[in-house]
Design a protein that fits this description.
10 strands, alpha/beta, 10 helices, Rossmann fold, globular, four-stranded antiparallel sheet
Length: 231
């Protein structure tokens, strides 16, 4: 589904990603976890074309997307739930879900299905996004990505700032997407969420992948957790 091969990404002269390689198989939830400032969001931005890699390759469904424009990457089937939600304050919930809708493949995600998945949004369709709670905004950001019917969904720090109840709702969403066959790259800091929902885990430190394992292995590896995650 996705292959990231020896990717190096810079901001000016700052070498942020230093030879990142990872892979995601169809229907798999892969987590990238690490402390603040290690390059997690830069990895997401490189994949979706917002901060293109200077060298290396990013391949999505056998197509090289390394330096492809972001809108073309989205059209190929890559969806993004960005860090901080990045919703449009002046647009209504309904407008968010209409403007990004795209029929692809079986077109599983329609407005009606999203409302069933996120019943809280059903009563807020006419409300502007800035009137929603933080949890509702996160659900809207996820819904906005899903109506594009992506094959791969990138979720950048989705639990950030959410109350425990909404974190559980987000976990329910991840499990639902797993069942429908959507592949997910989950970029997170909350270890418990990653251990509960990911199929595989990559640990990122100082722009490099320093560890790769199954969640159950990481749960028992106290030395690695302490060294790279501070837990």
């Amino acid at each position: 589904m996705l292959k990231v091969e020896d990717v190096h990404t810079y901001y000016g002269l700052s070498h942020i990603l230093q030879g990142i390689s990872l892979a995601i198989e169809p229907g798999e939830v892969v987590a990238v976890i690490g402390r603040n400032g290690v390059g997690k969001t830069t990895l997401v931005r490189s994949i979706v074309g917002l901060t293109p890699a200077r060298s290396g390759r990013i391949v999505f469904k056998d197509t090289d997307i390394t330096r492809m424009p972001s809108h073309r990457i989205a059209q190929l089937g890559v969806g993004l739930v960005p860090q901080g939600r990045r919703i449009f304050a002046s647009l209504s919930v309904r407008e968010h879900l209409q403007v990004t809708a795209r029929r692809r493949g079986l077109a599983q995600w329609t407005l009606e299905r999203l409302i069933a998945l996120f019943p809280n949004l059903a009563e807020r369709l006419g409300a502007t996004a800035n009137k929603l709670s933080g949890g509702e905004q996160q659900m809207l950001a996820a819904g906005r990505a899903l109506v594009g019917n992506p094959d791969l969904l990138l979720m950048d720090e989705p639990t950030e700032g959410l109350a425990p109840l909404m974190v559980r709702e987000l976990g329910r969403l991840v499990e639902t997407l797993k069942e429908t066959g959507v592949s997910i790259l989950l970029v997170e800091q909350q270890l418990a969420f990653v251990l509960r929902h990911a199929d595989r885990v990559y640990i990122l430190s100082k722009g490099q992948i320093v560890h790769h394992c199954r969640p159950a292995e990481l749960a028992e590896d106290h030395e690695t957790k302490s060294r790279y995650l501070g837990v």
